[in-house]
Amino acid sequence: MERLILNKLLDWKNSPYRKPLILKGVRQVGKTWTLKEFGRRYYENTAYFNFDENEEYKQFFETTKDVDRILQNLMLASGQKIVPEKTLMIFDEIQDCPKVINSMKYFCENAPQYHIACAGSLLGIAMAKPSSFPVGKVNFKQIDPMTFTEFLLANGNENLAKYLERVKREPEPGNMRMLCSGW
């Protein structure tokens, strides 16, 4: 399946101004799948941490703001290897652990070499109300439901998708007269 947001995520990965990412979207829109697929395609390794399924991960953010200590604890608890620049860390269901959101400030300032992408539902993030939100220390991307173009691509209709994209950009001859006459 091809989600067009993967191109925006690749831009984020390659940006010299990259900060930890929060991928926002409604429930069941494909946030987790998209981040895992992005990691699979563009990183040597993906380290996935789900704060809803693994309650013990939450404690690593409750007791310290030291990024190195947090990373050591995550690697020990999960058995996953985290290598700067080569590993995408995915923090999923972050609305269940507001301290994770707050820690993005410290990852941004003290460990920018780590690539972190967080996922959580809009409602969950809004309700979590972290005591200290890392304003200016995270990048946001919005994922929406699959577009018709993405649906066509997922079903092998690449030619139809290209045709419809071209038709959208080219005004019909009759419409051109209306545009020129001020309608």
User: How would you characterize the largest beta sheet?
Assistant: 5 strands, parallel
User: Could you list the spans in which at least 5 consecutive residues all have pLDDT below 50?
Assistant: 176-180
Question: Which strands sit side by side, in order, in the main sheet?
Answer: 2-3-4-1-5
Number of strands: 5
The percent range for strand residues is 15-25%
Shape, per Cα inertia axes: elongated
Structural class per helix/strand content? alpha/beta
- Cα end-to-end separation: 40 Å
Order of helices and strands: HEHEHHEHEHEHHH
Helix content: 40-55%
What is the C-alpha radius of gyration, as a whole number of Å? 20 Å
- Total helix count? 9
Mean pLDDT: 86
What are the defining features of this structure?
alpha/beta, 9 helices, 183 residues
Write the layout of secondary structure elements.
Elements (H helix, E strand, L loop, with lengths): L4 H10 L6 E5 L5 H12 L2 E6 L5 H7 L4 H12 L8 E6 L5 H13 L4 E7 H7 L10 E4 L5 H7 L3 H12 L3 H8 L3
Parallel strand pairs: 1-4, 1-5, 2-3, 3-4
Please provide a written account of the structure.
There is one protein chain. The chain is an alpha/beta fold and 183 residues long. The chain is built from nine helices and five strands. It has helices at 5-14, 31-42, 56-62, 67-78, 98-110, 122-128, 148-154, 158-169, 173-180, and strands at residues 21-25, 45-50, 87-92, 115-121, 139-142. Strands 2-3-4-1-5 form a five-stranded parallel sheet, with helices on both faces. Helix 1 (5-14) packs across helix 2 (31-42), helix 3 runs antiparallel to helix 4 (67-78) and helix 7 (148-154) packs antiparallel against helix 8 (158-169). It is elongated. The model is unreliable at 176-180 (pLDDT under 50).
